[in-house]
């Protein structure tokens, strides 16, 4: 499924970022509070820090808001085709981050006119979704999920609600049944490939995702319907089945895991921050404010790998060599003290980098659709269960041990049982 062939030199160039000051981005003690890591790295290295990925593979972590905007706005210097990487000789076939960086002929790694062609197909396919209809479908999904646990007076919302709702919405809009063992296996494999836990095999999981989406594309080629997959297949750009498979994986993955964490991180904020305590049950404005604040302070996608330097250049006072890998530190950029000098993040604006920036940002209208899913999920839950509270102390909540995604391991709650 992944092709790690590279036209670039296959050895690390002189001056690559593997030096004693590099910090490992695996097994971090900072995983529960990554903001501490970002502050420490920024204090020691500035806006661009040398880091080590799994297996001590060198890379650069871009921490500064301005530097991130520069990298994502200059595809001529920092491109997406990972075959440029100067570290491929050091990458084993079972490397855990391979699903992120192994070159695939998808919109994620396309550049220039080809990227615009592929992104244009996705944009038009998503524009075919009626946002009001999507909200109605999400509310129906939410009602069914809530009904499964409403009578018990308690629930673990990560598994029973926050992950389940965007998963069902995403597969439904792509033309798959939103329930069933087949769909659940797809979602499990997406989680493993995006955010593997100990003992998981992300490479094998990603291959299974590809196989299932391939089946879906074949089904829709033979029998199209009013869904994203069919619209992509029917687009005048004439994407091949393989191209649609690759790009659909990107669409579904982006709609499911990050949106699930956005929902849960927002619920955590609403249930633990006294600023929202008075208005949550009665007003919807606080939900919108919480959703936006989470994108600034607890964005679901903390770091994104990555960009690859097209040629030798400088960034943030660092000498970047051709073929070096840059990890986009989206969470660090959102809290950069250069844009928030008073240490107060103004969550009322939407200039965050949570959907990235530049030509390779999440294609319009994907962020709007994600907002519809997340907002409907949060509002419906609070309306149906207005006395919802945590069933543990806030400090007992734990985050998944990931430097890439920001999401809780569990969100246990209790409420007055509701007879359906």
From TrEMBL:
Residue spans crossing the bilayer: none
Family annotation (InterPro entries): Cyt_P450_B, Cyt_P450_sf
Signal peptide start-end: none
A GO term for molecular function: heme binding
Record family assignment: Belongs to the cytochrome P450 family.
Protein name per Swiss-Prot or TrEMBL: Cytochrome P450
Species per Swiss-Prot/TrEMBL record: Streptomyces brasiliensis
